[in-house]
Specification:
Layout (H helix, E strand, L loop, with lengths): L1 H4 L6 H21 L1 H7 L3 H23 L3 H6 L1 H18 L1 E3 L2 E9 L2 E6 H19 L7 H20 L3 H17 L4 H24 L9 H12 L6 H6 L1 H13 L23 H34 L3 H25 L18 H17 L4 H8 L2 H6 L1
Length: 399
Amino acid sequence: MRSYLSYLKGDPVIWIITLLMMAFSLVTVYSFVPILIKIEGGSPFLYLFKHLVYVVLGFGAMYAIHRIQAKYISQLAKFAYYLGLALLLFTWFFGAEVNGAGRWIRIPIPFVSLTFQSSDFAKLALILYLSKLLVKKQPKLDNWRDGVFPLLLPIAATCVLILKDNFSTAAMLFMLSMIMLYIGRVPFLKLLTMAGVGVATVFMIIGLHLALPEANILPRYDTWMNRIDNRVDAADQSIESLQANQQANNAKLAISVGSVFGQGVGDGKLKEFLPEAYADFYYATFVEEFGFVSAFILVLLYLILLYRIIRFALKTQDLFQSYVALGIGIHLLTQASVNMLVCTGVFPVTGQNMPFLAMGGSALVMACVSIGVVQSFAKELPKNEQEQQFASPEENEID
């Protein structure tokens, strides 16, 4: 293992966790796709091959990005942000529609139909650009015009463009941006004002949608409201309510029957009645087949991943790298947490999947790119700090 890790610079623990999850995703995707086969046809091997293509692309991107010098990533942050906006605009007008949402760009590759969700790229691009602006505007954060507005505009532009087809992603990205601004020492009262403006903007857009229904400003508004209504009525045991909450109820039932050690790989039954069992309801299907012990280990792996990223962010002397690493770490853990909370019935149904594990697409590739960025930064820590960063707690105590 050490000989292979010698080619992978940066934090070895992050590498091990990421690669283990990606390898394990091949097993779960093969097991979790019966519902997809029923709906769209094909065979498990077809979806496994498609996912394998994304895994290879993700690892290739992660490896290539981590070899880039950190200074070049900083220099490319602004370009990445504007490219992200361009992709969002392109998707707005020409995006391919899947499951009633036009979020995807189709990539024409022979034999395999690949899609790319532009918001996945835009999220990372905003984290990079916002981190760069936080460093640049640090002395002016008490000033609205010169310090705060330049931070607020890219957040607003990105979130509004994502909002049309993906409310949950827009809301998560806005909250992540607020957290990053708080970490970047933007005054708390200004943060409250920005949060209030953000909420007011959402209500204004909803009001315009209701006042001008022919404009269809929010094409998925009815879907969002139905999901919220179904979550509110989750305790209702009427036939109508049970039918409306069938997905959420099946997810909770799958978690319940998983018990301590699960039903076994491939032996889960409720995955055949869970749309997106391989993505949006990944955690429920995972618990059904692998049990609570494995679910605990999975949560622990995500927490260790976040801990290692935070540890690096506190070690580095470069503020840009620190902000980017914290933004990436919080985003990955939040995405995994939302998937778990949806499956357990705490949150309404959303479109957030499990990083590195769910059947990917662009979400898997961009999660890998994110880790590549963190590892690009981590590999450039001074040698003595890098050894201390990656040493075990016992070794640090001895030192």
